[in-house]
Design goal:
It is built from twelve helices and 14 strands. By secondary structure, it is of the alpha/beta class. The chain folds into two domains: 151 residues, 3-Layer(aba) Sandwich (Rossmann fold); 182 residues, 3-Layer(aba) Sandwich (Rossmann fold), CATH 3.40.50. The chain has a seven-stranded parallel β-sheet, with helices on both faces. A five-stranded parallel β-sheet has the order 2-1-5-6-7. Strands 3-4 form a two-stranded antiparallel sheet. Strand 11, helix 10 and strand 12 form a beta-alpha-beta unit.
């Protein structure tokens, strides 16, 4: 009998993309059913005890009846869902981390949870460079003026001109799958690249960048881009004190996580001239609330948390989780299992 798989897609990683890849990876040995979750037309958020999920416990419980495997991007996996779906043995989440799954409960229930590290690394690196270049050259404000029919010659004034990448020192905070790609492109453009990442060994950046402490990076870099994960240590790591260490007229970019940065301090620094510009794809509150200074402070170019969104990412995401399904069916080790201790753990 074919293994029953639920493809819980959304409007980005489409259900049929998941289905096609699962069938390909399993040589047709799966019976796949589909549901479509509302993200991004409806923002993700907490569902019971998990965060950044889309859909409800009720619809997942109904859709998972009899299913042994679920492939998804944002479907929640909660204690309640696990208790109501005893046939479930594998949950494959096509994200960089399984934040929409209760890993402790999944382990107790004997459900392996996989994820997809690096699925959007290329897209996010390219988007980071897009915002970096746009912020360095004032593209956001000049574009807004042009759309209003305003042609401002004073943008050519010396004090209003932007920064070239060639010859500039660019500091990257974090050197994982995204930061390392950004570094290589910047080096190709002629930048001097500094990296701060306490988990990276010097040989990994050799020939590309210089590994330095955070204070050194901030004082030497005319452009700083954030690529760190959010932890207790990194939350709020860049605030007024750190921005003040940067050369006057610098540029700050964040396509990582909003919690890394004090955005009020950024607005203050732009108002004072300490920062010449900034580029953001992530924010402390999403969507950005009406009345936020980010919406009125000049020199900031923004996008609505879309750095990881490309058509190629949707296909990669489906292919990565489908690959885990194929390995599961063949009895092979899973490539990216977040709770490997589940093997040998009986369901409660």
């Amino acid at each position: 009998m074919n293994t029953k798989v639920l493809a819980a897609g959304d409007h980005f990683v489409l259900p049929h993309l998941l289905t096609e890849e699962v069938r390909r990876a399993s040589d047709g040995a799966c019976e796949v059913s589909e549901i479509q979750l509302p993200w991004p037309h409806t923002p993700f958020g907490p569902v019971a005890e998990v965060v950044e999920a889309s859909g409800t416990e009720e619809e997942m419980i109904e859709a998972l009846q009899g299913a042994e495997v679920c492939v998804t991007q944002l479907a929640p996996l909660t204690e309640r869902i696990l208790a109501a779906c005893p046939d479930l043995k594998l949950m494959c989440i096509s994200r960089g981390g399984p934040v929409n799954a209760n890993l402790e409960a999944a382990t107790r229930h004997g459900v392996a949870v996989c994820y997809a590290p690096g699925r959007n690394a290329v897209a996010t690196a390219e988007h980071t460079l897009t915002l970096l270049l746009a912020a360095a050259r004032g593209v956001g404000d000049t574009h807004a003026d042009m759309r209003r029919g305003v042609w401002r010659g004073d943008y050519y004034d010396y004090d209003n001109c932007g920064i070239e990448i060639e010859g500039a020192t660019v500091g990257l905070i974090g050197y994982g799958a995204i930061g390392s790609r950004v570094a290589k492109v910047l080096v190709a453009m002629g930048a001097e690249v500094l990296v701060h990442d306490p988990y990276v060994k010097p040989d990994l950046v050799a020939g590309i960048a210089e590994l330095v402490g955070l204070d050194t990076l901030l004082t030497r870099s005319r452009i700083v881009s954030l690529h760190a994960r959010v932890t207790e240590e990194t939350t709020g790591m860049i605030g007024a004190e750190q921005i003040a260490m940067m050369p006057r007229g610098s540029v700050l970019v964040n396509c990582a996580r909003g919690a890394l940065l004090d955005y009020e301090a950024v607005c203050d620094a732009i108002d004072s001239g300490q920062l010449a510009g900034a580029g953001f794809d992530v924010f402390p509150v999403e969507p950005v609330p009406a009345g936020s200074r980010l919406l009125t402070t000049p020199g900031i170019v923004m996008t609505p948390h879309i750095a990881g969104g490309s058509q190629q990412v949707a296909h990669k995401a489906a292919r990565i989780v489908a690959g885990e399904v194929g390995r599961y069916l063949r009895g092979e080790p899973l490539a990216h299992c977040a709770n490997p201790e589940v093997f040998g753990t009986a369901a409660s």
